[in-house]
Every structure is written in structure tokens, then in C-alpha cells.
Amino acid sequence: MDFALRDMGFDPSMIGALHDMFDFMDETTEQKPQHPSRTYIRDTKAMKATPADVIEYPNVYQFLVDMPGLKPDQVKVHLEDENVLVVSGERKREKEKEGIKYLKMERRFGKLLKKFVLPENANTDGISAAFQDGVLVVKVEKRPPPEPKKPKVIEVKLGGGESSTTGGGGVEATEGGGQQVQDGVPSEVKTD
């Protein structure tokens, strides 16, 4: 319900007021639903506002994240839960100087954040990052594909030690009554 209200343009404080006004109850626990925390809301807005591209090459995944106005020491790259690449930084507003006023302020300030779930073949030990001209480039190497398993060939032997190359399900009889092989299991054959 909260997501639908947010999509309609309601801010989180208005959603909270609507919940309180209508006293929505959770059907299973008979308690009021938990409102998202400010940190969650801030991180969600930061992830939506941080543009990024993901490119797959034959041997590497490349993540390009726009982080204008930041210096390399203000950018953080780390892994969460062993397979989530997290890129973050914060651009702070310049302090207003005395006698100067802004007539228009359109540039974005605040937290920049992007999270990427890495594919299974990503090598988390082979991650490198470079920052230049406001663009962070993170490269994650791919693991080589696993070798396909070759089928194991099992030799089928007859009771007398002779080998046979008949396929499963076949019937082979020896001369003079010896053994018969049915589905790979030898059995005695009586002849008159």
C-alpha cells in the first residue's frame, strides 16, 4: 500500500499521517504496520537518483557509475553478503558565503548509492575500481566456465572374463548354454 501511495506522489510523512488517520491494522498480527525508516527512504531515493551502466564483456563485468563532484577519497566500494557490490559517496552542499545568495540551485547534493547483485560466475577476488572525471569504473572479473563432465564408460564383462560392448537392454547368449546377459546382469541359460 505504501508503494502505491508513494507512486501517487505522497511523501512519507503524509503516508504516515494517512495510516494513523485510517488506523490500518495488520490482519495477521493485529498490530500497526511498520513505517519505513528514514535511512531506508534516503537510500532508496539515492539509488534511484544515481545513474549507472552495466556492461558484460567476455571476461569481465564493468559497472559505470556517475558520481559528479566527488573526489576519489569520497567514493566507497565494498561487498555485502559476498555477492552484492555496493558503491556509495556523498556530495555535500557548499556553505553559503556572506553576501552571496543562490538564485537557482539544480545540482543534486546528498548521498549517491548503487547496489548490484553479482552473477554466480563473478570472481569477487578480482574486483578493481578507478575514478576519473566524475565517473567510477568498477571491473569484476568472471570465473572461467566449469569444465563439462565427461561421461564415465564402464566396461561390461561376461561371466568367462570376456568383454562385451553390447548396449544396455540387449540379450547375448553364449554357445553351448553358458551365461546370458540381460540388462547387464548375467543369468544361467539351460539348453537341451
TrEMBL record:
GO BP term, example: response to stress
Name of the protein: 17.1 kDa class ii heat shock protein
Organism of provenance: Nicotiana attenuata
Native organism taxonomy: Eukaryota, Viridiplantae, Streptophyta, Embryophyta, Tracheophyta
InterPro entries reported in the protein's UniProt record: A-crystallin/Hsp20_dom, HSP20-like_chaperone, Small_HSP
Chain intervals with Gly residues compositional bias: 158-179
SHSP domain segment(s): 43-157
Record bears the keyword Cytoplasm: yes
GO CC entries: cytoplasm
Residue ranges, compositional bias (Basic and acidic residues): 142-155
Domain of life (superkingdom): Eukaryota
Key words of the record: Cytoplasm, Stress response
Tagged with keyword Cytoplasm: yes
One Pfam family, short name: HSP20
